[in-house]
Design goal:
CATH architecture: 2-Layer Sandwich
Helix content: 25-40%
Radius of gyration: 13 Å
CATH topology: Ribosomal Protein L30, Chain: A
Number of helices: 3
Strand content: 25-35%
Strand order of the largest sheet: 2-1-3
Order of helices and strands: HEHEHE
CATH superfamily: Ribosomal protein L30/L7
Distance between the termini: 17 Å
CATH class: Alpha Beta
Largest sheet: 3 strands, antiparallel
Number of strands: 3
Number of domains: 1
Shape: elongated
Structural class: alpha+beta
Amino acid sequence: MAKNEREEQKTIRIRQVRSSIATVPKHREVLRGLGLRRIRHEVVRPDTPSVRGMVAMVPYLVEVVEERS
């Protein structure tokens, strides 16, 4: 991937808003796959269909804080 492509890639900032303690094990795995570790932890991920699908699996645990183009 060239430097120009990385700069133009869309990203989203995701924040964990609830604990994963009493959730389905698969949902915990989704959080770990996104890189979220604790409440109020934020990560920046590329805005791809796979990341959007992961966020859609656990909407009660995370929120999309910012979308950059």
